[in-house]
Amino acid sequence: MSSVAPTGGSPVDGTGERPGPIHARPVPHPWRWVALALIAVLVAMLISSFVTNPKWDFGFALQVMNFRPVLNGLLLGTIVGTIGAMILGVGLGIVLAIMRLSSNPVLAGVAAVYTWFFRSIPRYVLLFMIGTGIGYLYPHVDIGVPFGQQLASALGWSNDLTFWQVDINAFSTTLLAGILGLGFSEAAYMAEIARAGILSVDRGQTEAAQALGMPPSRTMMRVVLPQAMRVIVPPTGNETLAMVKDTSLLTAIPIGTELFYQTTIIGQRTLRIMPTLVAAIAWYLIICSILMVGQYYLERYFGRGFGAPGQTKRDSTVKRLLGVGGSH
Amino acid sequence: MARRHAPTQHHTDVPLVRAVNVTKSFHDNQVLKGIDIDVHAGEVVSLLGPSGSGKTTFLRCINMLESIDGGRIFVDGELMGYEDRGGTLHHLPDKAKAAQRRDIGMVFQRFNLFPHMTAIDNLMEAPVQVKGLSKRDARERATELLDKVGLADKADAYPAQLSGGQQQRVAIARALAMEPKLMLFDEPTSALDPELVGEVLNVMRDLAQAGMTMIVVTHEMSFAREVCDRVVFMDGGVVVEQGDPAQVMVNPQHERTRQFLRRLTSEQHGDQGADIGADQGVDHSADTGVTNS
């Protein structure tokens, strides 16, 4: 065995110096450089086409992005619409998930039927129904004693037991109606996501809370849901991004104060369709980028105690390209 | 080693835990077939028996993590889980059950600490949420308890940052934060690396010495022998025999107890033998490496 040992001794046979720190050469990654070069060429071609093809008309696109009606539509229909619909969707979705998982068969049944109905109706159709159909079917909703009006006419009373009347026709085309429609639809999807999140929490957690004398409601709010959020947040980020884009369906209500409708109108009026499309795309990109940053921080918050992203460090992109540092 | 204070009073006062003819089935499988056990205040009782004997299930029945099919369990004179109205039993609502559990601490095999809370938040959670203690008072008590289990410096650590033994000590402190009259331990050292078992048993030993009433499901024979006032040997869903640890473990009356103890001791010897062999193997090869050169 000692005949194979290099001169100067080897730790294997116990002679020579004891091995020191490791400065090993990285595994070469030539294909990463080839891919990078290829992509650089493609990007350069793309940029060149932007510059040389006047039909893009980025100048006008930038102008459209800053038109007052476009900004107004962006703020109200797209941003307020998304926030409102997601607040309603997440809140109601979690409530539905808890109902679905409860031992109360009535609550579980209601949640199951709700989820079945709203997951089966396309959002565009639902919004059309809210904007046009409901107002036609029920021009106004009377709030009072159930069947009070029928009773009153049968018995000849002067008072028909109605306390309050809502004008559906006036309401059904407001932004609030649109937010309700999108939110109710979203809640059905969020209910399934929240249900998966709640089920992902170890049963031992519930038992520990119960053993400490915490009633079921406290156990859910303080122990189960905060841990379920770790599983709920990433798909909810997905849902939020989808909602930003689904606000363009508000035209079905019809609601005009919304980003895509406004840019489309401008395109039709000016006959410069492409730049207005670019303007809409640019705004959607910006909004979604901001949301993705927000999602990162939310995931970090709810991942506390679990080794969430940001707590375990990864080598930078450049380091990984050069092949120095970790074992990548 | 007989323990601390006044064992004479045991048979005069009402037992803290009284189980009468407790039965329990999972589907067709009857796991408890009429258990009668009394545990008096200040007593430390360990439940021994092979796996599947029903000891963990019985422990979980005491604080209603499992419901029972027959018999009665009383803790501190109170019927657990039901209300007796003129001979008819009525299920207690969840909130009333939660109230009954407040005086019973439980320590789990898998610790079950709340992973999204720091150690001290784990201890403060139930006193603040359930007992309505102010955060300041709860923090003060929690700090004291963490100090008592030797983890004052880990107050702000999340469970994932603690070793198994440290997590289990936090879990014991969390149960104690509710100032329970009774502590239930469900195989508290079974999920731990062997070198971490001692620190948890030490905390439990201190607790026993301080006079806490404890029911401990365990496979730690030395703990049962040295710390417990009484051992209860269960097999097949019944209590086979019970009594003074020295008597039951050294001179068991029943064949099933004898078998169990024999198997346990031979297993432990077997493990030690294997460990020693492996160690010697490593030493040996290292030696030959040196001598070859």
TrEMBL record, chain B:
It is found in: Cell membrane. InterPro entries: AAA+_ATPase, ABC_ATPase_HisP-typ, ABC_transporter-like_ATP-bd, ABC_transporter-like_CS, MetN_ABC_transporter-like, P-loop_NTPase. Pfam families: ABC_tran. The keyword Metal-binding does not apply. Residues 265-293 are annotated as: Disordered. It is a peripheral membrane protein. Keywords: ATP-binding, Cell membrane, Membrane, Nucleotide-binding, Transport. Its main location: membrane. It comes from the Bacteria. PROSITE patterns: ABC_TRANSPORTER_1 (PS00211), ABC_TRANSPORTER_2 (PS50893). GO terms for molecular function: ATP binding. The keyword Transmembrane helix does not apply. Residues 17-261 form the ABC transporter domain. This is ATP-binding protein. It comes from Arsenicicoccus piscis.
